[in-house]
């Protein structure tokens, strides 16, 4: 099978202002809309839609702010990044410009966990406030990256890999058709992951929570536990039922309950769900997801 050409190098065109990175964020819903903002980073090929419906389960004291990366959604015409450094610097700058680099927590799944960690380090290097909490999900610890080369797979083999990881949802026909349109963005994101090399530095001083899943070959339990050395604070590790995309599956309500419990410590809100919270939890319907 022919190998699809590698994506181009890092994008150098000017990036949009903060609002372009955080869809739906307006001055009225921005820096002071809630006591705490949860900045959410996507997995490779992912979009902010995976975090749709998170606000209600996490409580009124938390504002969910998904990050929109180039090459998808309203930024479809922008070239996706293919290197970690420029991407992290531009996200950090957007957070500062948007007055979001204070009273915030970070969540990332798979590639998003790497982004969340690197953005936290970048903001620390710039002298800004540390995140109140860092949630890493479905991701090996940073020093364990660099052993995969999925970006060089043929289109057919890449589709097969995504399906095997549970990323096409329940209807593989719909999921595969949608994935075909996302392959260039997915390959660029995979390049970010696979060419990433951790630079040794002091651990973060914020508490962390790590999530792994029972059937995830990308981030097995021991490699997620290895995040413990990346914080001088506490680390809680929750091992949930599911595959690599457990955040969109049956374990999603459990994931959200654990996140709410931790964030409640920061917002003085009750950690238990409100009486009607179970009905407001996102459903477990599996929509197409991606990888990394």
UniProtKB/TrEMBL annotation:
Domain Thioesterase, residue spans: 37-261
Region of interest called Disordered, as start-end residue ranges on this chain: 266-292
GO BP term, pick one: lipid biosynthetic process
Protein family membership: Belongs to the thioesterase family.
This protein's name: Thioesterase
Source species: Streptomyces ferrugineus
């Amino acid at each position: 099978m022919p190998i699809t050409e590698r994506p181009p190098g890092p994008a150098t065109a000017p990036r949009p202002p903060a609002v372009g990175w955080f869809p739906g964020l307006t001055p009225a819903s921005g820096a002071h809309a809630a006591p705490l903002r949860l900045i959410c980073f996507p997995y490779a090929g992912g979009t902010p839609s995976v975090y749709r419906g998170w606000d209600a389960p996490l409580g009124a004291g938390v504002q969910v702010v998904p990050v929109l990366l180039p090459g998808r959604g309203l930024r479809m015409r922008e070239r996706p990044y293919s290197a970690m450094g420029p991407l992290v610097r531009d996200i950090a700058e957007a957070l500062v410009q948007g007055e979001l680099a204070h009273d915030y927590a970070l969540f990332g799944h798979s590639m998003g966990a790497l982004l969340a960690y690197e953005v936290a380090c970048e903001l620390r290097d710039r002298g800004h406030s540390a995140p109140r909490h860092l949630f890493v999900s479905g991701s090996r610890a940073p020093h364990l990256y660099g052993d995969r080369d999925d970006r060089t797979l043929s289109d057919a083999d890449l589709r097969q890999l995504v399906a095997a990881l549970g990323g096409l949802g329940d209807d593989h026909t719909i999921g595969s058709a949608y994935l075909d349109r996302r392959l260039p963005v997915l390959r660029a994101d995979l390049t970010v992951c696979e060419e990433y090399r951790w630079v040794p530095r002091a651990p973060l001083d914020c508490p962390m929570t790590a999530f792994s899943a029972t059937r995830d070959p990308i981030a097995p339990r021991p490699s997620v536990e290895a995040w413990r050395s990346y914080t001088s604070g506490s680390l809680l590790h929750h091992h949930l039922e599911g595959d690599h995309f457990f955040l969109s599956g049956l374990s999603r309500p459990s994931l959200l309950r654990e996140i709410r419990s931790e964030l409640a410590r920061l917002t003085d809100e009750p950690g238990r769900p409100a009486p009607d919270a179970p009905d407001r939890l996102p459903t477990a319907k599996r929509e197409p997801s991606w990888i990394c």
